[in-house]
């Protein structure tokens, strides 16, 4: 019996030493993440503009302290590293961050965090002020989320990241006139900017020459508006689109089979906003119904024609 008790004591001691140290009350950063008005999050879309994180989704986080513009620049100097640089993975209920991120000691010291999803969108040691973006036209593939946080260390050590959409979303609604009762859409081609560069730290964009690009097909919206004959969506680079050829509509009907819509004025596409264009297709012409802009999660916004 004394021998058994001794062995049990040794086993218990080893087991306790192998356990990871408790982090409650320490300087370890705990992470939570949402997008838009809580509790909406990302990556699966359960309904129009309702997103949820899935098991295994990852976000990349870098952090520093001091003023926001005092961030590290490892792309210029390899020794200039981030104070925190980690990947956080969602396990279905909590975020597990590896390696641990830590708060820097200091009264009233400002901490800064920049996070993005998908995690492999960009290497944290590459130039975050000049990121090349190339879009496919698929809204699920092209959606990029970004969260920025600046404040002093919270009492509960929790970093509450609220993600926003980095790029701009474009929605299109089409309605055929009564003379086309059996019209069917073959394809809708967009002349919106699909390549450009982004300054992720300062939220600035530069779009490439749109006219030099081949048009790409818009995706039919998975949650179409019932009052229209067709609804589509795509992601685009935030920028000002000058008056130009804008949309090419190919369809099958009793009349014309291709329509080209050119918008007469500038269209300003903004980061995190959704621009919605409604077009009415009549005999040999396309007429503007409305064009509105609002936050990504809002369906009805202000009319751009009047604003």
Summarize the structure.
This protein is mostly beta strands and 307 residues long. Helix content is 7%, strand content 46%.
> What is the tally of beta strands?
24
- Would you tell me the structural class of the helices and strands? mainly beta
Biggest beta sheet summary: 7 strands, mixed
Q: Helicity range of the residues?
A: under 10%
For the CA atoms, what is the radius of gyration? Answer: 25 Å
Give unreliable regions as ranges: 4-25, 38-43
Distance between termini?
87 Å
**Beta-strand percent range:** over 45%
Number of helices: 2
Backbone shape:
elongated
Summarize the helix and strand pattern as letters. Answer: HEEEEEEEEHEEEEEEEEEEEEEEEE
User: Largest beta sheet: what is the strand line-up?
Assistant: 1-10-9-7-4-5-6
Round the mean pLDDT to the nearest integer and report it: 82
